[in-house]
Amino acid sequence: MKKMVTWILVCILLMGCIGTAFAADGDELPFEPKAPQNVSVNWMEGNDSPTSMSFSFSIDPELSKLLNLLDQARDSGMLETMLAPYGATDVYVNIQIDWALDDVNDPVSGWHYTKYWDDPYGTGFGKDENGHYRCSEWDAVEWGLNSLDTVQTYWIMRGVPNDDRWNGNPEENTPGVKDQLRPDQYEYHDDNVYIDFTKHTAYFRVRFAFTGVLEGDDGVKTVNKFSEWSETCGYGKDAAAYTPIKAGDIAAPEVTDLHMTDKEFNDNPIVAFTLTVPDALSKMAADAAAHGGRIVIDTEARVKGDTEWVVMGNTDWEIKTGEMECALVTLISENHPKIAKDTPIEIRCRYRCSQTELDDVFSDYSKVLTFETSEIGNDPMPTPTEVPPTPTVAPEAKEDAKKDKCPICGFCPQPLGLCIFIWIAIIIVVVVVVIIVVKKSKGDENNQK
After folding, report:
1. In the structure, what pLDDT confidence band is assigned to residue 433 with cuts at 50, 70 and 90?
2. pTM for the full predicted model
3. Which of 22-31, 222-231, 402-411 is the most confident on average?
4. HEC per residue, the chain
């Protein structure tokens, strides 16, 4: 029943968050997405290639929640069903990273964004009406998200060999990286481009590109919507130097709503709590990621009354605003080979920041949350001392057991003899049919007039 309620909530949230995006006529998605936040970049000091940079940014918490809902619906096969009333079959997001060297307004080495980044001809991001690519190897015009985590990290400005990627393709008007730099800004030898960042500064910005896949009378089409560009970050001669994160910089985690879930790990219960990631932490996490570090969250638990805390394994550790899960099997020990149902359990969390060639930095602990557990200590592969006798079940009893269990989802009460998910599908279809009939009726009235 909990799973059914969860999916109903997912359905409602998706309809509310996404449905309006496809409700209006026209060629634009009628919402304004927030730009990527907390951009940060660092030169990789010759690792990967002589010019490679590590670039990071963070995702707005509300967008992060929406992306997680979409991902859950897509994994369950429910996405098309939920988007069907809006004429959409999918919605996804890419990022676009723009770059410049020394002067962002320079006609050659300034920002390299052009109209082709917007896919004006429906031929793809970065392409002209003939399908020819009008961007260089360093122009990131269609990169997917690495994950659904709050902080995203990419390697950019990577080395280019002495082929079309460096020299371009004049026949198709495709620029090479060489066409986007001034001769005094680089050296090229040994199949690599070299830039002296003690004399030059690289600048970067990023934006989201949302794409809705629509199906209508005219067939399948895509509709794009772009966020504003992020703030600018840079590395080199005129960019501010990075200051490592130190003790006292990171506030304690904000955790709430600790509760049992209906999930299990190794036949033992899983709890969940809600983590809120403030913007200040997102910025520090993006800075740390760009400079080869990271910020994660560690979860500890104990049976109430114990003095020692246990660092929990099999637990969500990537920081994100939303629900974090913690498997309780790690609490099993010599002192607690089995923990009885309704035993009070305490949980606390803290952030851990790892940085290159520096000791880890920890935040203070969160407030302690308490809950009453279901039984912990179930052996996932029990070995009975003796084999219990197998009871004989009458054919009638077997048949009744089969009838009581829903053959589709395996857990719903089968209202009026049908699976609850079939009822949901029927309701969606009825709503769609009513909308179509009403529109057709209005159309006939207009024609008669």
Report:
1. low
2. 0.75
3. 222-231
4. CHHHHHHHHHHHHHHHHHHHHHCCCCCCCCCCCCCCEEEEEEECCCCCCCCCEEEEEECCHHHHHHHHHHHHHHHHCCHHHHHHHHCEEEEEEEEEEEEEECCCCCCCCCCCCCHHHHCCCCCCCCECCCCCECCCCCCEEEEECCCCCCEEEEEECCCCCCCHHHHCEHHHCECCHHHHCCHHHCEEECCEEECCCCCCEEEEEEEEEEEEEEEECCEEEEEEEECCCCCCEEEECCCCCCCCCCCCCCCCCEEEEEEEEEEEECCEEEEEEEEECCHHHHHHHHHHHHCCCEEEEEEEEEECCCCCCEECCCECCECCCEEEEEEHHHHCCCCCCCECCCCEEEEEEEEEEECCCCCCEECCCCCCEEEECCCECCCCCCCCCCCCCCCCCCHHHHHHHHHHCCCCCCCCCCHHHCCHHHHHHHHHHHHHHHHHHHHHHHHHHHHHC
